Amino acid sequence: MSNPSPQRPGSxxxxxxxxxxxxxxxxxxxxxxxxxxxNAQLVVQQLKEKVNLIIxxxxxxxxxxxxxxxxxxxxxxxxxxxxxxxSKEQAAEIMREDFGEDFLKLDLxxxxxxxxxxxxxxxxxxxxxxxxxxxxxxxxxxxxxxYYQESLVNDIAxxxxxxxxxxxxILLLFIGIAVTLIHNTVRLxxxxxxxxxxxxxxxxxxxEFISRPFLRRAMVxxxxxxxxxxxxxxxxxxxxxxxxxxLRALQDWTGMIMLFVLxxxxxxxxxxxxxxxxVRKYLRMRVDDLY
Length: 291
Fold this sequence. Notes:
Layout (H helix, E strand, L loop, with lengths): L12 H36 L3 E6 L3 H13 L10 E3 L1 H12 L15 E5 L7 H12 L4 E5 L2 H42 L2 H9 L4 H37 L9 H32 L7
Antiparallel strand pairs: 1-3, 1-4, 2-3
């Protein structure tokens, strides 16, 4: 026995077109929030890696300072190409440019120190890791102390924790809304087929046999909806990038591809599970209840 067609020709095509478009819009809204959260995470990472740490050096001469610089550059927590040696003479020149020629105009010794500045990788930008880094560096001969803006680091950590929690709650809320809307859309699309589903059971077809064509179609529709949503997000992202050039430095194509794959999987999974539930619901109902 071959599978009967789950719909009569031309009977309810508009319902399925409406279903595909509606699911695509829901997935687009969910994807837009996820894409915003992804780019916000990249912005936070950039901000973390812009916090300066300053190593104050003993007066061991230029050669000794550059030897320490080479060591610092190889350390795993240092962001690549961020370490820089600034001699006290260079520091005095910078101060003159900032504060004018009156700076150090008295005939006094230069009170500044040779320093090395660097940025840490984003994964190390928390108070405990920075304190460990400071302790490790101070133990090295030739280093007097390590400074960073502790209050700024603490503020960044607290704000990231709060924003991350809020984003997680909103994301779960969006997923709940998406599941509900997609399920209701699928239920409405299958409503016109309720008599066909029940008639197939009455002539002796098994529930699995009845469900199979509907589930296949649900997977295809979910895939199409996810593709439409992903394409819409990609076009929107490229359009925004064209208007805001600064976003080009933040692009994460790996994250984008993972998001698109997730939207495809969600579209297929929610569509298929909702179809399975609705078909089984109609099969359990009596004929009189279908009217």
